[in-house]
Design goal:
- This protein is of the alpha+beta class and 186 residues long.
- The chain has helices at residues 36-45, 85-92, 112-123, and strands at 3-5, 25-31, 49-51, 54-60, 65-71, 76-81, 97-100, 128-131, 139-143, 151-155, 162-167, 172-177, 182-185.
- The strands form 3 sheets. A 6-stranded antiparallel β-sheet has the order 8-12-11-10-9-13, with helices on one face.
- A hairpin with a 7-residue loop joins β9 (139-143) and β10 (151-155).
- The longest helix is centred in the middle third of the chain and has 12 residues, at 112-123.
- The two termini are 27 Å apart.
């Protein structure tokens, strides 16, 4: 299991409206391999709202072992922006950014609920593991507790129940244990 760690928006504030009153949306950006943290930092420095989910892993070298933070989704980070040409260019001109993920490299917005579910799980320090991407299964919502309202796909039975949280655009998922939580079908 991994110990999640949060790397969230500046001051925890998420701007709802961008330039010209256009609503900002979440987009995935493709980055150069092993440059996700650097890209995240550079985007923050120019005022772009970012989300880079990190997990802790033990890495071994010939002389030592250490706990390091690695991106949950390698080669990807998330930005909250409007699709105005100037805003897109600010992101695209950042060293290490290869482009927006989605149609015609313009980017496809990610549903806010998918990002919020992942952010809430990380904020609550719920242990999680990588999970194969699922498209079928019972869609459920957690009721009560620190994860109230988090939705995902139920996997497993009895005491081995997990909730799979997915970023559908990337076809990537993680699972969290839901033992002890009340769940309902969506």
């Amino acid at each position: 299991m991994y110990g999640p760690q949060l790397n969230f928006e500046r001051n925890g504030l998420v701007p709802e409206l961008g330039i010209g009153g256009e609503q900002s949306r979440w987009y995935a950006i493709h980055t150069v391999a092993r440059h996700e943290k650097r890209v995240d930092q550079q985007l923050r420095e120019i005022g772009v709202v970012t989300f880079l989910p990190l997990m802790q892993q033990i890495r071994r070298w010939s002389d030592r072992r250490a706990m390091v933070d690695v991106p949950l989704f390698s080669c990807y980070a998330f930005v909250r922006t409007v699709q105005a040409a100037g805003e897109r260019l600010r992101v695209l001109r950042t060293p290490g950014v290869l482009g927006f993920v989605g149609s015609e490299r313009v980017g496809t917005p990610i549903p806010t609920e998918q990002i919020e579910n992942l952010q809430m799980s990380i904020r609550q320090k719920v242990p999680f593991v990588d999970h194969p991407f699922l498209t079928v299964g019972n869609r459920v919502r957690i009721r009560g507790g620190s994860l109230d309202g988090v939705e995902g796909i139920l996997a497993g039975h009895g005491r081995d129940q997990s909730l799979v949280l997915s970023i559908e655009l990337l076809h990537r998922s993680v699972s969290i244990r839901v033992e002890g939580y009340d769940i309902e079908l969506v």
